[in-house]
Design goal:
Elements (H helix, E strand, L loop, with lengths): L2 H6 L12 H9 L3 H23 L3 H15 L10 H22 L15 H13 L2 H11 L5 H8 L3 H23 L1
Helix pairs in contact: 2-3, 3-4, 3-5, 4-5, 6-9, 7-9, 8-9
Length: 186
Amino acid sequence: MSLQQQSQMPSTGGGDVVASDAELLLAVGGGSETAFAEFARRYRSLVERTCRAVVGSDSDDCAQEVFVRIWRKARLYDPDRGSAPGWVLTLTRSVAYSLTRKTRLTTLPIDAEPLVEDASPLDRFWIEGALAQLPPHERTALELAYFHDRSQSQIAAELSVPLGTVKSWSRRGLNRLALLLEDAER
């Protein structure tokens, strides 16, 4: 039975052949989506906990980036050099620390002039108050997009982060902003 066939078998515990983590990672390196799904299922909790411990509130972005990198770099895994859990944990910590550095470096200074010029003073007060409560990277992404008229591609290039990360920051920031402004209206 081939490795790919083994990684596609269900893990019922009733005598079925279950691929080891190393075998799954090797199959992922060969492009097996089924092996990747099983590997992600096994390691999601570990990756999310590690990201949360290092990055904090941005653990979703971190976990997403880790699994993207696992998919792209699994072919580089060498079982003779270390275990699959060790490889994943090293990759996770590397991504988490990298995101932490980028987040610290990408916070823009707040201009002294109001950001929302056309709004009434009361609306301006609520919008600026809600923006101040967002995480710095989400606020930066929204400010660059809406107040400095930058595209998401331009923001990604300016902040040296992947485009998908900027999209996630923007979407989460808009969702949080909507909730904050909704609460302010009550």
